[in-house]
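Continuing the series of single-chain predictions for the mutant panel. This is the parent chain; the variants come on the following pages.
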Amino acid sequence: MKKNFWSLLNPLDIVDIIAPASQSSPEKLSDGVQWLKSIGLHPRVPKDILKTDLYFAARLETQIEHLKEAIYSDSKAIWCLRGGYGSMRLIPHLKKLKPPKHPKLFIGFSDITSLHLFFTQHWNWPVIHGRMIGQMHPDLSSTPDRKLMTEIIFGKKKEHTFKRLKPLNDSARENKSIQGMITGGNLRIMQSSLKTSWEVEAKGKILFIEDIGERGYSIDRMLEQMIQAGIINHGLKAVIFGDFTQCQEKDGKDYTQKALERFSQKVSYPVLKGLPAGHGEDINYPIPFHTKCLLKLGTHGELICSYGGHHTS
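Parent structure:
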């Protein structure tokens, strides 16, 4: 398969903002627009991006048109406004499109997992699992994850090392290194991908998993279904868990970690946790999908991520 890279951004480059999932607020949109301007980029916003339809940001036809325009426009990047629910509805329409000659930088997470899976698996695009544009408030630009995102998109930093990942099984404690591409994202969305045209393809890859608002038994059930469906039972290079937030039981107890540990004992490949990415309130580091990365195992794991941006003429 031909290697593809997104183009590093330069000052005044255009960034298309889209809302393929749930509705957002004018305030969140304004914050993101101001943040893009503050780092020297030119945000472009469809005029009816906030014309809501039930729990979606807009009517399906409008969301499809916005995404199509962003894909084929003169912008360097496409940045999602918010997650929630709705992105998977666009995929049957995306399947009818011809990919452009060169990938664009595509950023989002959570519900955007469905679009990440489509772009990486069907169009061979590298993408970034990272904060939504509605979370990029100008006053918060100095947080470590936002600062790293800025360095990545402008090419000031081509890779990043995540240290002190905790091994959860014996395979993860072996002193060895694994090379591979990362895929994955939100667990609930990956479960929703089963038996679809964009079903997550995890074999031969490092699978990253995060989620929000799922109690321990629900996490256990989703992982068990993916094992029985043949998605994560064997053939993976490793699994790395990110943040699992707001997962408490009604009595306040949290069985998330027990669910993750139980899963790690069922499989033969390395399982680690502690990647600071997902729905954490303070930190959500950008994670690259579909680019080469290196995972070092042992007492403390390390993940060295390459982000996939290249200078283009």
